Every structure is written in structure tokens, then in C-alpha cells.
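Box S2. Input/output pair 1.
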Amino acid sequence: MTSPASVVLVFLDPAFPDGRLADASKPQLMVTDQGATRGDGIFETMLAVGGTVRKLQAHLDRLGGSAEAMDLRIPDQDAWRRAIATGLAEHRSQHPAASASEDELVVKLVVTRGVEGAPNPTAWVQVSPVGAAGRRQRETGIDVILLDRGYDSDAAERAPWLLLGAKTLSYAVNMAALRHAHKQGADDVIFFSSDGRVLEGPTSTVLLAHVEKSDGGASVKRLITPQLDSGILAGTSQGALFNAAKAAGWELGYGPLEPQDLLDADAVWLISSIRMLAPVNRIDGKEIGTPSLQKELTAELNELFAGIQ
């Protein structure tokens, strides 16, 4: 659990162009704020390494897309950049011993609709250390279970008001799925639709790989992810890794995927901004791929991912 003493909080406030610092150990949010009472808001979570936020533009663009889907007016990107810089600088000043070049911090952007009738939304930046669990799962891998998400793969197009492609604060189902997985002895979840399509994890994007031999005997590596039109969140990490993998000679694919495709893959990962690339060791108790090949592919993709800014 992150201690309030290690959290830096910066509110976006028109009266403070670079953001207004606030004490994270004291109450800051009105109990009538619609983010708290209705989950009516959006967020983004990013990783900062050595004081630099990775994929910042992609996250700001996705935040804007989520806001548009929710008819939510939010501060402009320059205001977010200034507030993020204030938060990172404040964290360095408070924790100078933890600001080495390899230090990792979670930078979270949150916007709620504010209290009923408020002229402006409530918006803030939160900076805190990366938890040990995410680091550990990158190295040891994870066991996952498959769970039915409860809607079909056409729901996002048929019912846009469900906000299936937006990163909203309404994460109760996602967290319930993770608690259910933990009770089953697993670490995480991969959702599938009611018509049998692979979707995403509660906080991550699904990737799988196949390695085949070409006619000339060379290895052909293919990286695949589910289709976005099935109602999943567009993964900033997946998108960046796909660009890097393509430049390195990988072939790319975009679903549609079924659960059996995961079981038949040479390797499967869940990828997200903070945990990064977590190898999936088992799905519903079944071992995935060949451990030695998975380790080799994971090392190669991690090297590609490390070069992404």
C-alpha cells in the first residue's frame, strides 16, 4: 500500500498555471463530487523513469478521447504537462534519495465531473512510487483465468453509451474480477465476450506470439492482439510496442481471437504502462507455450519496449 507521505498531489486550477500542490494526507475531494458518488470521470496511468514520463503524448491523446466520449470538458494538454512537471519536481525534492536514473514512478491523471452544477471539473495529477507486485510479475510471470465479460463483441458499436472504449473511473467490475482471480489462486484475468472473442485484462492489453520457420529456415515472429472494435481500450503500451516490433522485423496481427488461440500460442503476455510486459505462465491451469521460448521472446520484446519514450 502506498503511504500518503510518498504521494505528491497537484490539482489543475486556473488560478495556478503550473498546478496547485496539495497535501495527499489530508481530505481534498468533496463528498458530493460525482467522481466519488457515481464514478463519473476518467483517468490515465503512466510510468515515469528517471523523471521522464513514457508515452506521454499517447496518454494525453487517449485522455482526450475518453473525455470526448463522456462529453466531459477537461484542461488542455499544456496544462496537464505543466502539472505533471510540477508533480515530478516536487517528488524529487521530497525524496532526493529515490530520484536515481532508474527510479520508477506512477503518474496518474484523474478528471471527475465535479460536484453537481460546478462550472469546472475536478482534475489532478498524482505521483507515487511503483509497487513491488508489478515489478515482481514482470520477472516471474503470472497465472490468469478466463472470465466472461458479459457482453458480445459488437456491443461497443451497437451501444456507444456503454463507454467500452473509454478509460473511465467505473472500475468496480474490473476490481471484482481481480478479487475473484485471487480467490482462485490466480494473479490476473483475461476477459472474453459472450460470443467467444478474447478482449483484454482488467488493467491490461493481451498479446500473443507465434514463431514459425520460413521456407528458407529463418524464424518468422508474429505478434498479435485482439481487435479494437470489440470494445476494448486502445492500449498505449501495445501500440508503442507494435511500432517497435514492426521496425525490428516482427509481423503484426489484430484478431479476432478466441480463447483457444491463447492456449495454442508460443507465448502470451499482459501489457500495461506500469507493470509493462508480464508473461502469462498458465491460463486456467494450462501451461502456455514453451518456457524457454517464452523467456527468449520476452527478453527481446522487453529490450524493444525499454527504448520507447
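Box S3. Input/output pair 2.
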Amino acid sequence: MSHCILIGAPVDSGQQRAGCVMGPAAYRVAGLPRALQGLGHGVEDRGDVTLPPLRNAMIANPVVHAPDETVGWTEALSAAVQAALGDGGFPVVMGGDHSLALGSVAGAAAHARAVGRPLFLLWLDAHSDFHTPMTTQTGNLHGTPVAYIAGRAGFEAFPPFPAPLPPQNICLFGIRSVDPAEHAALLEHEIEINDMRVLDEQGIAVPLRRFLDRVRAENGMLHVSLDVDFLDPAVAPAVGTTVPGGATFREAHLVMELLHEAGLATSLDLVELNPFLDERGRTAKVMVDLVASLMGRKVFDRPTRSF
């Protein structure tokens, strides 16, 4: 059984639609600690990370929104995740918008480097998030974490990413909304792209098992970053960046169950939940249910829903 360390990340600076700051509280209210305990895991809630004193993050692109705060969150969350892994825990970072992964994955990478293991990344998202602070046109830094993790230039205002991940260690899974500039850059970096066309043709299991086989073969650590918009908005409406055609409830649970069976995941992000857009806590409950599947709940153990 795992020692799950819950880390609240009330990050709202990576985009401009208010509400993600309430995400960590929503996960607690929706019963995430109780679900993990019910599966026999130890649970330690370390509370919400707070911003350090901000410094001036100089980014030449004038459209970038709240760079000082996002750099501060990156530093604080990197330290929190690295500490949790160093304590032998399984960190669950409850967000917060996806810019939190700038810090969470950096912390996982620093720990992986310290213990001499490669880090792999499974990015469950509608978007590739492969812009840099210099290429973003919206100015929203939640669209940049994968570029930072892969070592793209343009992140000079951020702490240097510890041991950028080789492209074969990054798997984008379920994406269906990619800007042309991002697509061109992804092809240059040869990152594995399992978009919804691939998943429609091959199903969920084949490409995911192929990636997990590589993680296992290299004795890798695996960071899973789960965006609410990986799911179809009909299943999970509480997100500000809805893209139709996402994973169904059953497909998302299959991903989680395959991850559990593989036993390779070592850290987890839950991102882009905006409780202000939710329906009676529906999306928060779905996300908690998905975490439970990742941590061992079987398909026949799912509770009857109140919505």
C-alpha cells in the first residue's frame, strides 16, 4: 500500500478564468482522503502550498499573464513534491490550473535524478501544452509545462528544469486541441502523440501498455498529470477549456485501472478543476473516482452516484 501525500496547489495564475483556486478544497470535500483510506492507503494531507515572496520574473513576451506568481508556484511546488517523494510518499498534487505541473514535474525530476532513475511523463489532456513563454499568444502559462519539461528554450525566468525528459519519455495521451506552432515543435522533438484519432483506432489499452512497457524496461518513475479536460465535457463539465470528443467515463477508468495494474506511477497531478463551473460537485466526484481506480478500486466496486 502507498503512503499518499496530498499537496494542495491553489494555483490560478496560469490562466485567466477564476475558480481553479478552489480546486484543492473541492477534492477534500468530494472525499479524496476518505477514498484513499478506504482502499487501505495511508493518507497525509500536508495542506495547501503557499507562495514564497515573489521576485520579478522578466519575460519579454508582453502578453504573458502573472509570470511572477507562476514562477513562485513553480519553485514552491517543486520543493513540495521533491520532499514528498524523498519521504517515501506518493504525492497527489490537487490543483489548480495546469501551470502547477511546471513545479510538480520539476520536483519529480529532481528526485528521480537524485535516486538515479529516469522519469517518464503521462500527460492526460486535451491539449499538448507545448508553448513556451515566448510563443504563447494567449499569455496563459498553463499551456507551457510540457515544453519546460522537455527542455525547450524560452524559460529563462524559471528555475532550470532538472534533467529535461527525453522525448521518448513523454507520452501525450488523448490530446485533440493543438496549435499549429505547437504541432510543428512537437514533431521536431519526436514526442509520442496518442491523440484521440489514435485512441479511436487502437483503443485505450494498446498505446498505453506500449508506453508502460518502456517505463518498466528502464526501471523508470512515472509522473501522471491528469487534466479534467482529458474527459469529455459531458462527463466532466467543470473546466474552463472544454474540447468535445474527450475520453468517456469508461475509457478514463480503463486508463486508471491499467496504471494500477502496471504499478509504475510514482506521483500524480489533478488539474484544471474549476468548482465554480461544476454541477453539484459532479466533476470533483468523477476525478476522485478516477484516483480511486488508479489506487486499486475495481470496476465492480464503484459506488452508485447521486447525480
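Caption for Box S3: The radius of gyration is 17 Å. The first strand starts at residue 3 and ends at 9.
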